Amino acid sequence: MKSLRIIGSFLFALVLAASVLAPAEVAALVPPSAHDFFFGPEGVTLATVTFTGISRKARGLSNLGGIKQIILFAEGDFTADWPLKEDIVDGILSEAPPLKVGVVGAVLKFDNNTARVKSNRKGELGYQNVGVDGEGKFAGYEAAQLAAIEKTFNQGGVAIATYKDGTRSVVGTSYEPLVFEDTTDSGAKADDKLQIDFKFKGDGYDFHPPILASSVTIPLPA
Questions:
Q1: Which of 99, 124, 146, 150 is deepest in the core (most CB within 10 A)?
Q2: From residue 184, how far is each of 63, 80, 113, 198 by CA, in Å?
Q3: pTM (2 d.p.)
Q4: pLDDT digits 0-9 by tens, 193-202
Q5: Which whole number is the average pLDDT over 148-166?
Q6: Dihedral sign, CA of 213, 217, 219, 221?
């Protein structure tokens, strides 16, 4: 009996392999009733993967949190929409920003370990979108700081955030620009922090902030 089971399993494996490699020939030789009994009326279907597996970052590698620097561009600095979803391949954006001649980015130098960016996908199936936000803190309350912040009043923009490992991500788009907000705080006593809290947020995107390719050069002040 055991030998018969082994022979039966071997024959079944041969028929299965033949059904995959030459389905038309097998269908012509095997009675339809027998074929449907073993394989179903749809025939043999190979396994497919709809989703892609996700793994944590490999052990032994740096994975520091926090943002080193943020560069801002106003929505009016661009000559065309940027970034576009079709320019993002496997999470990487390789297209340089289409900027007007002479435009350079505004560099934000925050207090250490106060800057961050976040994104979140939400919504029901068929209606999902991605929202983004970020913030950082500046020590002080000076005229030059206030003058720079005033330029973001009712003016949207795009942020390029540099992570501590050098990775850059593009937050917001020129066609759905970020909205900027700020809060000032004098503190109540001498050892309180006199600072400006600078924030931005955006919504309605169909992708998380893409990683900007290392080959892309961003124009900065001399």
A1: 99
A2: 32, 34, 18, 9
A3: 0.78
A4: 999 999 999 9
A5: 97
A6: positive
